[in-house]
Write a structure and sequence with these properties.
By secondary structure, the chain is an alpha+beta fold. Helices cover about 35% and strands about 20% of the residues. It has eleven helices and ten strands. The strands form two sheets. It has an eight-stranded antiparallel beta sheet. The N terminus is likely disordered.
Length: about 375
């Protein structure tokens, strides 16, 4: 939708707290819990990165290495999970961009790769001015950074202490890996789609998974929404019967343009601070969600990419794109977090559409398709 510190912080959306809950602990989670107990009051190491990584700290390279995760970089932690999560993201980036190129039929993705001196880096793949897509991007990032405790606390929704294990006032070194994407089609009847999936660890021994996929149409199409939400309900139900209800409601709460009292779009699923069970189980859930993006979204774009539309309908799409910009720059926690830490600006703003529109006091005509669409943004509904 998520600075993605580098390509990732657009995906970051550091929302909602984190807590280590009893039961179901894996070997990796037991390790992290034990480490947490031993590092109460820990101070950030002298080699910990600064709070602001620096706008000019990214070095462009011709080709990214086989892995941006290196054992020994960043805080101590679960290196196998870091490497596994990055591998999953890289494979998904290739698969998803190939599927989008096939749907577009003309344009291809441009890839940029970069690294940082303190470790990590990223790969951005961006398509522009295609036959079907105005703009589409899929960004991978591996980040080793640090944040003030108050910044981490402000980024949580439930006040959970993500800096636990660190001495009061100490900045918190962290590792983050994620994949984020936004797709903006040209046709007003083909919805915008956003996803991000991420994995975090802190030097204080805290770890969690987060992510989600959501859709932003401009007009109501019941069948499209049943397909999109139904795809993710099927995934959620395979892993936990409570997931879809919880994560759909979470998306409806998160993607709200508060100064408009309306949602950005028609939601999907959104989750964060997931660490209440074996880490490998949450990894498998995240992997299946990510691998379901094309299944959930692709058929909808294929269905509508050649629909006829009027100038008025195109203007409405541009107005809704303006709302998209408002949410991302004002409320999206990942974008705000990234801008404050000096990440790669092109990756941070990749999520924004190339064109948008603002009209003074725009109000859809009562009873119009535009008014029907907006009503569902003011009162989110269940589609499946």
């Amino acid at each position: 939708m998520r600075v993605f510190i580098a390509a990732f912080l657009a995906t970051l959306s550091i929302a909602n707290g984190f807590a280590i809950r009893p039961g179901g602990a894996s070997r990796s989670s037991l390790y992290m819990s034990t480490k947490e107990a031993k590092t109460e009051g820990k101070k950030a190491g002298k080699d910990a990165p600064p709070v602001s990584i620096g706008w000019d700290s990214h070095q462009a390279i011709e080709k990214a290495p086989d892995s941006l995760v290196r054992e020994g970089d960043g805080p101590d932690g679960n290196y196998p999970m870091r490497a596994k999560f990055e591998k999953m993201c890289r494979e998904a980036q290739i698969k998803i961009t190939k599927a989008i190129e096939d749907i577009d039929g003309e344009a291809s993705f441009q890839e940029d790769a970069w690294v940082r001196a303190n470790g990590g880096g990223g790969m951005s793949r961006v398509m522009a001015n295609g036959k079907v897509f105005e703009k589409a991007g899929v960004n991978l990032s591996v980040v080793y950074g640090s944040m003030p405790q108050e910044a981490l606390q402000a980024a949580t929704e439930r006040g959970v202490d993500r800096s636990k294990g660190m001495a009061p006032g100490e900045r918190v070194p962290f590792f983050a890996c994620g994949l984020s994407s936004v797709m903006h089609p040209k046709n007003p009847f083909a919805p915008t789609m956003h996803f991000n999936y991420r994995y975090f660890e802190t030097d204080g021994g805290v770890w969690w998974f987060g992510g989600g996929t959501d859709i932003t149409p401009c007009y109501v199409n019941e069948d499209d929404m049943k397909h999109f939400h139904g795809t993710y309900k099927e995934v959620c139900d395979k892993h936990d019967p409570n997931y879809f209800k919880e994560f759909k409601a979470w998306a409806d709460r998160y993607f709200v343009i508060q100064h408009r009292n309306e949602t950005r779009g028609y939601g999907g699923i959104f989750f964060d601070d997931q660490n209440d069970r074996d880490a490998d189980k949450i990894f498998e859930f995240s992997k299946e969600c990510l691998n379901s993006v094309v299944k959930a979204y692709g058929p909808i774009v294929e269905k509508h990419k050649d629909d006829p539309f009027t100038e008025k309908q195109k203007e409405w799409q541009q107005i809704r794109r303006g709302r998209y910009v408002e949410f991302n720059l004002v409320y999206d926690r990942g974008t705000v977090f990234g801008l404050k830490t000096g990440g790669r600006i092109e990756s941070i703003l990749m999520s924004l559409p190339e064109t948008a529109r603002w009209e003074y006091d725009n109000k859809p005509e009562p009873g119009s398709p535009e008014a029907e669409f907006l009503e569902n943004c003011k009162h989110p509904r269940d589609w499946v």
